[in-house]
Amino acid sequence: MNGKDISDLVLKIENLVVHYETEDGTVEAVNGIDLQLERKRVLGLVGETGAGKTTTALAILNLIPDPPGVIKSGKIIVNGKDILKQDIKELEKIRGKEVSMIFQDPMTSLNPVFTIGEQITETIMLHEEVSKREAHRRAREILELVGIPQDRADEYPHQFSGGMKQRALIAIALACRPKLLIADEPTTALDVTIQAQVLEVMSALKEKYETSMIMITHDLGIVAETCDMVAVMYAGKIVEQGTLEDVFNKTKHPYTEGLFNSIPKINDRKAELIPIPGLMPDPTNLPKGCAFAPRCSYVMTECHERPVELKRISDTHIVACHAYNKPDFHIRRRAGER
Amino acid sequence: MAETMIEVKNLKKYFKTRRGMLQAVDDVSFSVEKGKTLGLVGESGCGKSTTGRVILRLIEPTAGKIIFNGRDITGISKRELRELRKEMQIIFQDPYSSLDPRMTVNQIISEPIELNNLIKDKREMERRVLELMETVGLAERLINTYPHELDGGRRQRVGIARALALNPKFIVCDEPVSALDVSIQAQILNLLGKLKKQFGLTYLFITHDLAVVNHFADEIAVMYLGKIVEKAEAEELFVNPLHPYTKALISAIPIPDVSSRNKKRIILKGEVTSPINMPDQCRFAKRCMYVDSKCWESGPELREITKGHFVACHYV
To answer: Which domain holds residue B45?
Structure first.
């Protein structure tokens, strides 16, 4: 990941800080994150409610609602373009063409008064110089690709089930073959057998169009199944980042460990769940030191006092934890223990 | 022989809709032994929540029998039912909408006690509320807060404290952790497990999450379109699933393990439909990969294949 030629990168985020300035105080949603994504790779952005995953995604599209959202600092380069410096016209060209996003809730992401076919056609015509007829033909083609019969293109969203709506959204998002697809909890609202269908469609299309992807999820199972790289977020910061293998089998951060210990293990039903004690900190009043310190079982005095820097463990693996200043520190979760 | 806490026999709940009769729960029978947990799993619309509500008679069954602690409660009067509700309670999925926003934690937990005239003395009531709060792990200082001031995990604890207020024997847990983050989910699951031991509770645990039910339940029943298609001890069901639907469900669970990444999955075609005016056929036939003419001709009965392992499929 280090020293890669910039042209290999689809996405590069540097020191992104996003706050929401509300009457009740400033919500520090994203607090200085760095991310890179190479072509054709899938990055899993993992964390619980309020970790800042969705804010990060919206920033990549320059869609942070303003007010109250303010991008305090940072640089976001998508496909060589500096997103935060584009004017609205340019952004409209970029969204849907260079970067697309699929949202969690398929029920509210489609326009109820247009047919599914019209909504895909619209996207294609916005970005490409094609006739309406040609756009319509392509819309039907891509519907077929996501597993929806072509003749249903003339139906309205309410005639589609949840799984089909999500597939229609995937069709819209991929209609112009974007370089980067951001999927924000794309299957959370779906049943598990439908989730399996949707994930399969997504990974097939991603292969076909050579799209890079950011998969935002709280489900470590989905990460294991779909991602190459993983970044774990907590209170607006990346606390651990690496390859799938790094994060899952050589877990370093106590929070990542806590997540793994909290989930029931399908192959070992008797395994005890070890919850992370306490709650996520109030984002309007984050601790001075490490944000995870109040819940951490390895906490030391300096964790409360000093902010944490990212430490490089290997070429691919980084962690933000003071404990690794001690050379012999290791967490309790053993490699491969699940 | 172990005592039975709750038994349902040929339970049916039909809803009239404009498109016809919706057979939400159709001929479901099972029983739960005292001190055990039966997990009821299935996808949205399979009738699992309706089953839970019919058992508590929060909605009236269309047909069938509900036997609670040896007593047929299917036809008992409202007054008798009120007495009975002390013994059977429910914990809801969404701690955001199941608590009255205008009541404090104190009022929410003490309301069922008040309604049943169990404690009249104010100081004694406060003691009881604090005791319940301690049982579910809520700090004393939260006694006068309102639900909106609490996070999801704490709200669910309030819901649990309220359910425990009348010392029930049987609790229907309807997706109690689905709305919570994993680290909080584990806290609540551990709490429910602790309470079960502490008070000798019997649970009907309704969920769509197979990993959770596998961890939590002693026995599991899988529902599809209003019918139980398979029922077995949890261990047996996961190691040796027999119904094609159960196999597909288990296979579809994403496993947080790098080595199972390229596992071959069973991907079902189609989607869950509504069980409206269902003819006598296997309800899974439309999506089943082993479907045969017989499946369209008659619905399979739930049969015991090995001891304690029941399956409703013509070809098992």
So the answer is: 4-87+168-241
